[in-house]
């Protein structure tokens, strides 16, 4: 198991003032960091990749579809073209940074709803765009991990059953799914069954508590989730994801209005300790 932490807990754009977060992750024993890839340019991420290389720490990234004007699933050809260009930007920046995996909900704009579930045409257009994206990513040595969201954030992809079918439509070996325990806590009847449903399609496991605070302090059965992942021979990144109220733009996006952890040191240390301990205990039993 390789353990990482998503730096969206502190910032949406990792600049020089944020490098202490990477150092903190190393001090707390993480194997890698998950970098938010929401803005900026290739030159910035090439610089950031150099800083990560200096520290000898691995990295993945998380990206989104920012708005309805850059939706790769849109029926409007001009909008869809802008969406595909945005996917290209994601791949270019991730490659410049040296990311192993591109994860996140880079399918359709968050918070944009049509009043119904996804149509077959939306999925067809999205699958075509994501197959193209996977082709580019694999040539640059990267994999994709598309993230289903709960139905209050997106109508496009919500469950593991949907995600497995969608991965079949994309039909590319570099394309997989990011399983997030927070979203699944809302959408799935059983998280262990959901993980078994995904099987080898799961490329990244996001460990996120039901309140998006420190894992192990809430309702989610992480022992059962880790057992299911190990039963499926999962060997991808296990990523701590939590959100706080310190950054207004992130607080607004994640609907976090109250502190979910004391500070980043507490989050990194206690969250990492819990994941490693729980994973190891399950591993012995399995």
UniProtKB/TrEMBL annotation:
- Name the domain of life: Bacteria
Which residues belong to any copy of the Xylose isomerase-like TIM barrel domain? 22-263
Residues in a coiled coil are: none
Its name, as the record gives it, is D-psicose/D-tagatose/L-ribulose 3-epimerase
Organism of provenance: Cohaesibacter gelatinilyticus
């Amino acid at each position: 198991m390789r353990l990482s932490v998503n730096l969206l807990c502190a910032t949406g754009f990792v600049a020089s003032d944020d490098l202490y977060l990477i150092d903190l992750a190393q001090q707390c024993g993480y194997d890698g960091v998950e970098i938010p890839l929401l803005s900026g340019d290739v030159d910035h991420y090439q610089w950031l990749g150099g800083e990560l290389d200096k520290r000898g720490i691995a990295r993945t990234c998380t990206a989104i579809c920012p708005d309805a004007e850059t939706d790769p699933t849109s029926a409007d050809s001009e909008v869809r073209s802008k969406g595909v260009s945005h996917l290209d930007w994601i791949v270019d920046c991730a490659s410049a940074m040296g990311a192993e995996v591109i994860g996140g909900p880079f399918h359709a704009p968050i918070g944009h709803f049509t009043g119904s579930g996804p149509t077959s045409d939306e999925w067809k257009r999205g699958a075509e765009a994501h197959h193209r994206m996977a082709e580019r990513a694999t040539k640059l040595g990267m994999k994709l991990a598309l993230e289903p969201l709960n139905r209050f954030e997106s109508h496009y992809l919500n469950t593991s059953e949907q995600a497995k079918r969608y991965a079949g439509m994309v039909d590319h070996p570099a394309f997989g799914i990011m399983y997030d325990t927070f979203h699944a806590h809302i959408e799935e009847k059983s998280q262990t069954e959901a993980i078994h449903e995904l099987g080898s399609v799961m490329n990244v496991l996001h460990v996120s508590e039901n309140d998006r605070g420190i894992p192990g302090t809430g309702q989610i059965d992480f022992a059962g989730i880790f057992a299911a992942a190990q039963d499926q021979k999962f060997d991808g990144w296990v990523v701590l994801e939590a959100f706080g109220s310190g950054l207004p733009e992130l607080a607004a996006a994640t609907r976090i209005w109250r502190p979910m952890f004391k500070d980043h040191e507490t989050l990194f240390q206690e969250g990492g300790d819990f994941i490693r301990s729980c994973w190891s205990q399950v591993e012995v039993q399995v």
